[in-house]
Design a protein that fits this description.
Layout lengths: L3 E6 L9 H6 L5 E9 H4 L7 H18 L6 E5 L1 H11 L2 E7 L4 H16 L3 E5 L21 H14 L24 H4 L15 H5 L1 H4 L12 H6 L4 H11 L1 H19 L21 H9 L5 H13 L4 H14 L4 H11 L5 H12 L14 H8 L4 H6 L15 H17 L1
Parallel strand pairs: 1-2, 1-4, 2-3, 4-5
Amino acid sequence: MSKITLFWMRRDLRLEDNTGLSEALKSDEEVLPLFIFDTNIIAELPKHDARLTFIHNQISRIHEELKVHNSSILVKTGDPIAIIKDLIKEYEIAKVYTNRDYEPYAKERDAKIKKYLNDNLIEFKDFKDQVIFEKGEILSGSGTTYKVFTPYSKAWLQKFYETNLNPESWPLKNNFFTSPPLPIPSLKDLGFETSPIPIPTLKVKKSLIKNYDSTRDFPAIEGTSRLGIHLRFGTISIRKLALFAEELNKIYLNELIWREFYMMILDENPRVVDQAFKPQYDKITWKNNKEEFQAWCEGKTGYPMVDAGMRQMNSTGYMHNRVRMVTASFLSKHLLIDWRWGEAYFAEKLLDYELSSNNGGWQWAAGTGTDAQPYFRIFNPESQMKKFDKNLEYVKKWIPEYGTDKYPDAIVEHKFARKRALEVYKKALDK
């Protein structure tokens, strides 16, 4: 049997402009694409998880695209280390190529697999693909990692303009492993059900990006691209999107820089997964009332902007970014519920959930993160509604009982909640 190169797909579900795949196809061996439904991850997901339906659909699409090259994608289910061990018995594998993932679990998994492969004289190579710049590429003048976004973004932009990204439209070399179509497990085989939640399209109008800076804060308007899920699973190239954004709207490009900032923070500081970036904020005495948390989850707090956002997310897997800030601030400051509770709930519900951005956004809202809003800045949900949904289009869309006796009274009074939060935060910081 001839030796082959495995290309392990994870957060890069596309053949076009895929760094690791392009590099693999330059090798001397034929390339067999591999995808693993990692049971360490999917075992924790609800049976109707829309993201699993999305991933399964993308794998099926790649399966069809590879038929043109008389090839296929090998799909396995289980623990990745065990699967890799089995595959090196089944195939003559010379190399395993993949694209880097910066989350703690993925880094630990990849390190174990790399060691195992190297011990068996099989090369393991990974590549940068899901970001423009990764940890170590954007450093301050003193050679340290930035902890404040604005100087980071300036350095990022300078390097961006100096870099020739040159996205590849198609793999440079048609060197795929010749194979009849290989079987793909059904969602049912995986223990999941098809989700009815629709996935935002990859096709975004230029006019939407051009007007992004003037429409992005108003949740009743379709003013955001909603490409988060495509970035999360790599069905879109970050290089192509960044070049597209740079041409049309610098504010939109700035949002992509925020994504990379938070990914760099997570890569550099994996402890932020379950700890405050600023350790002194772990001294906060959270109220953590379970009934109030449940009311927040269900969109029944009596604050329309908060409730509309929660109901939108529960129904569609999406919440407008302005509303994400309001709901997160409300939970952590008005209700004094640990930001980690809210982060975990968003992780379960959001189609575009990405650990680094979700964690960064929650720590920003709670005041616990790097370059976060100050703890004494507490959003007033009522004034946010008047400013960004003054005609109540968004609120009425998601709260049909708004303005009737069926809509609950406010769970807590704003001035009281603000004063209480300031006292609790200050007490923690004074310790």
